Model the fold of this input.
Amino acid sequence: MIVLWFSEAPVSSGRVWEDTMKITDLGRLEGPVVLWGGALGNLSALLALRDVTRDEGIAGANILFTGDLAGYCAEGEVCADMVRRLGWRGIAGNIEKQLADGGADCGCGFAAGSVCDTLSVKWWAHTNATLSTASRYWFAGLPDLAVFEHADRRYAVIHGGVTDVSRFLWPVSRQPEFAEEIGAIEAEVGPVDGVVAGHCGFGFQRVVAGRRWINAGVIGMPPNNGVPGGQYVRLDPKGAHIRRLSYDPAPSVAAMRRAGLTQGYDDALTTGRWPSEEILPGEMRRKVMAK
Done:
């Protein structure tokens, strides 16, 4: 069953994910749009993005997120509360869904028993224990998919995929994989000119059957390239532009260490390197990414 939502009001229950897809139409957006995702509980990154958008005069209604506001870092509740108060709009990622639904794990799509799966246990426990009821309720009301129009183009916003919210589509994934998701999106909302996604942690663009696939990257973790900072996208009439987000990670690193989150993601904020690359396709591991 598909439910079409034109409001961001919370639903009455957080346990809705198995049976329904919530779709919201954000209408026509004028002026530059900022597309971002994956704060991952990193308040330093989120504050930096807030400052950038304020300095550039981006309207709050034009700042759209692709999910995973909480996660690896220690300040998930603060990040969720801040985004909600700012009035920024977006969709639920797997982390929001799991937190709203009382999930036992992050639902990130990691292989069982993998390093990433093992490392997730502690940060998930911290995130789950520190998130407020108000944030869970807000997460439960977030749509799964959003559409908007900008500069005579129509875009859909998703997390990983429509067929699977935690599907990993990488810069090197095959064209048919993107085409499958575009087909699933268009079956729900009709034709689109572009798709805005998140989840995988890398900002990139692909063109598939005339549609532009734009991954906005994440702000809360570096893209495993040895450089601290995150990524986001600025959308204007000329197209989508992947931007680097620079910030001092020290406060968020300190918060992680106070919380006992020292599995390697704390170091990643300063080294720019993930604690494990096993989830990456072979051609994206360090020998290629370290250019």
User: Anything to note?
Assistant: Confidence is low (pLDDT under 50) at residues 1-18. DSSP finds nine helices and twelve strands in the chain.
